Amino acid sequence: MGSRVYWIVPDSILGLELSGDLTVDDMRPLIWQSIDALRQGPLSFMLDCASLATVEPDVYELSSFSQWIYHPNSRWFAYVAPPPFFMRVMKMRHRGSSQVFDTTDDALYFLRRSANPKKRP
Q1: Which of 26, 36, 72, 85 is most exposed, with minimal Cβ within 10 Å?
Q2: Separation CA 35–CA 90 (nearest Å)
Q3: Taking the alpha carbons of 58, 59, 61, 63 in that order, is the dihedral positive or negative?
Q4: Close Cβ partners of 59 (under 8 Å, ≥ 6 residues apart)
Q5: Is the pTM for the entire model greater than 0.85?
Q6: 24 alpha-carbon distance from chain centroid
Q7: Which CATH code for domain 4-115?
Q8: Confidence of residue 78 (pLDDT cuts 50, 70, 90)
Q9: Which helix (H) or strand (E) covers residue 77, if one does?
Q10: What residues contact 15, with CB distance under 8 A and at least 6 apart?
C-alpha cells in the first residue's frame, strides 16, 4: 500500500492519500501522525480515496479514529472519491464536520475557504 500523510498547507491543512488495500496496520500510523499534528493547533484534513481499493472492516473500529475526528483541534474532513461504504461509516462518525468531493481541487477550494471564510482563495 502507498498511503501517506503530507502537508498541503503547513499548520492548516494535512493531506492523507489512501491507496490500495487499507488495513488496520496501515491506517493506525496515519491516524497517529494526524493526531500528533493536531497537538500543534487546529487542522483540517483532505483524505484522497481515489486510489483506495478495499478497506479492512476492522479499520472502522479503531478507537484512535474517534480520538482523531473528535480531537478539539480537528476542523473539517474533506473526502475525495471515497468508496460508498467507507463514506457511509465516516458520515455516521462525523458530526457535521465532513464533506465529500469528486476532485482534490474542489476539496482544497473548500478547505482553504473554510480556513479563512472572509478571504477567497
Answers
A1: 72
A2: 17
A3: positive
A4: 22, 23, 24, 27
A5: yes
A6: 16
A7: 3.40.50.10600
A8: very high
A9: strand 74-80
A10: 5, 6, 7, 8, 45, 46, 47, 48
